[in-house]
Amino acid sequence: MNARIRFRSLALGLVAVLAGGTAIAQPASAEDPDPAFISDDFASGTLNTGLWTVTDPAGEGGVSVANGRLKLSVPSGKNYDIWGTNRALRATQAVADSDFQAEVRFTTVPTQKYQTQGILVEQNATNWLRFDVYSTGSALRVFAAKTINGSSTQLLQSNISAGPEVQLRLTREGDSWTLAYSTNGTTWVNTTTVTHPLQANRIGPFASNGSPYPAFTAEVDWFIDTAAPDPGDPGDPGDPDPTFTLDTVTSGQGSITRSPNQQSYPAGATVTLTAQPSDGWEFSSWSGDASGTAASIDVTVDSNKTVNATFIEAQAEPPGEAAFVSDDFASGSLNTGLWAITDPAGKGNATVNDGRLRLSVPSGTNYDIWGTNRALRVTQPVADTDFQAEVRFTSVPSQKYQTQGILVEQNATNWLRFDVHSTGSALRVYGARTVNGASAQLFSKTISASSQVLLRLERTNDSWALSYSTNGTTWTSAGTADHVLQASRIGPFASNGSPYPAFTAEIDYFVDLANTDPGDPEPNPEYSLTTNAVGQGTISKSPNQTSYAAGTVVTLTAQAASGWQFAGWSGAASGTNTTTDVTMDGNKSVTATFSQAQSNPPVIDVWYGDDQIFGARGQSQKWVNILGNVSDGDGVQSLTYRLNGGSPVTLQRGPDLRRLYGTGDFNVEILYSNLNNGANTVAITAVDTTGATTTKSVTVRKDIQAATLPHNVSWGSSTNPNHTAQVVDGKWTSSSNGLTVTEMGYDRTVAVGHTGWENYEVTVPVTVRELGPGAGTPQSGAPLVGLGLHWQGHTTVGSEQPARGWYPTGAFAWHRWQQGGRFELIGNDGSPLTRKNTGWDFNTTYVMKARVESVSGGYRYSYKWWPQDSTEPAAWGLTLVEDDGPATGSVLLIAHHVDATFGDVVVSPL
């Protein structure tokens, strides 16, 4: 069956299905609605450019029609993402701003991460809707999003499975949009209907990708309006569209490229011609059916045409005046009369031997060149004019964020960088600008190199063009950017980024191509720098030397003694910043003045009192937690605690988007096993930035009592929840109304009972009034409320304080506000997982009941829930068997980014 017969069979079948009532409901009407756009089955062999407009934002995609398929191809490594800015490769046509039903059949299925194909409905360049399928790399998802004034927001997302094809059907009714999908063309599945006002102007299929930008080809069998699914014969009612030829001729030595590159073109097609001269030649002009001197022109093909490109021999230009002094580092030592070394961390090294300048940064020290310029660098003055700088590196970065390149400075907070760096798996050539201390990428491109990399930077007015070479002969453009900068210094640099690997950049030469001869070095004078302190404090110098070569930049740092503060610099420096730079162009003297600090000491607030008892109602986890907050108007410098007079232990302070949620929050987390029976002393000490100190002593009493079953917790017995349970995280209050979160945040938790419990059932009523702020981050995910079973306590993931690991734990039973709401039961390490999609009404009390019981092969966990004013369901809502979790543990109450109250807890034995 050919494509035309196949498509018409589809159209008749679609009409039959619609008539049978098994597809998406159609508006009631005595007549078929007028089509909103023109259907196309791409059976003519070429794209109908009178109907479709191709948009290729990156200019490197491919659009073709063959075998009755429209193919939209995006290449590997190129950003064709459709988020915020519409970079998708697409073919669109005009669409009426009315109700319609569009259907597309893709004979391709995305398999690699962020390969995407779908339907685009545009209002304009910054407002559109997308309905598509994409791959996560491990799953296929149907997806929809809206973009309003360049800001994109997800509308729907759901996992699906597909065979060799995916079909999408988009139904518009007013401002309502319903997406359905099919994997066989017969059975259709509706997704959620979304509402969004949009003045539709264009519609069509698209192909896109996302980071890491894989190659992808979307094959489109048809794109139709179901009101008129038959596109008609290609030659009916008129004659076929005429096609014309475009011939190109060259005079001299050079070539002409064309885009698109075809043997013939439909009438009205626009073809881009680009003249490329051979080495030693330059492009002169166009003639024939084109004119002008620009190397790239557009030709409209409305008849058979011939275009001639003329190339002439290039005339060598005499060398101009150099903007800076070239250096091949052949003298055996660095010319410090020319170059100034800047080493912000004071741990790097700049040496010259064997005709190489070596810039070495050590492991574990921050030499990042982003925001603040921490790179190790040697620079010299440069004229604020056009120039061509070239550097040869005989080193190639191989570890993550090892970097070497060219730095052009205006001042300490405004500069340009052009470099090569390693991502750990690839080598990239890169450009970035920094304006008033804020850095932004200009371009980035993946390259390959083995033993050397050469960079060539050409400045023309405010345009900066970077090229690179791996052999010194063949040069490739890396990128061009426009940026206004008053250049004052230039030179090579070496840097790193987290995890801050060691790296040595080897520079063979750094030259101005207008005059590559370094000449003879000038005599290099030496100058002294004297420092004086008034008041109590010290001054450090970097580099710390007895004398300095002319032009050396020395960083001075003032450090006030305890109870004193830095007041300002005088002499050859000024200002009140504790760190200042002095350029050595003569003998200099600098004075730092310190004054006695006037400040209030830090305030330490221990939330549950200065005398706390743990274990009185059972040891509910392996830790005790002393919770609180520290604040100081001058800023907190450090926070530590000592247990029973032992060594100080550093405490982390919030916010960390996890357990330490608020600014200044702390959590003294101590193992029960490290406490003495009876009274222990925990001394918490805070020091602010002026040296003022506060110490708060807390008596921690270890008194572990048996917690037998049954076990009941009545919150009305005390306003301090630590008297009846153990607060693990957050601020809570208890009363006859229950246990209530007073400050919402990440995983506010309370542990109940004993870590030795095995088989039990827990029942607790819960009321949620609202969702709190802060959810949705990578650390937090969706808000939730629920229980942990067989809880033993947090585990450390790395060196964090407090610990943040949630496993091993028997199971979690909770309600999560995600995709409309879902109750979930999750085993140890997040598996197995079972869930049921249903909502939760705010200000309604629900009863949560969960059970753990030993069975053959592990432990069975069961979970049910119901509104308190209704009857308890007989059956469990969710169950699972966990074979890898703890054999015993307590109960954990969890309120994650919600305003919640837990009622009295009843734990019964099984």
TrEMBL record:
Bacterial repeat domain mapped to chain residues: 245-312, 527-597
Stretch forming the signal peptide: 1-25
Pfam families per the UniProt record, alphabetical: DUF1349 (PF07081), Flg_new_2 (PF18998), GH43_C2 (PF17851)
UniProt-listed InterPro entries: Bacterial_rp_domain, ConA-like_dom_sf, DUF1349, GH43_C2, InlB-like_B-rpt
Alphabetically ordered keywords of this record: Signal
Domain Beta-xylosidase C-terminal Concanavalin A-like: 326-480
Domain of life (superkingdom): Bacteria
Annotated protein name in UniProt: DUF1349 domain-containing protein
Naturally occurring in which organism (per UniProt): Phytoactinopolyspora alkaliphila
Taxonomic classification: Bacteria, Bacillati, Actinomycetota, Actinomycetes, Jiangellales
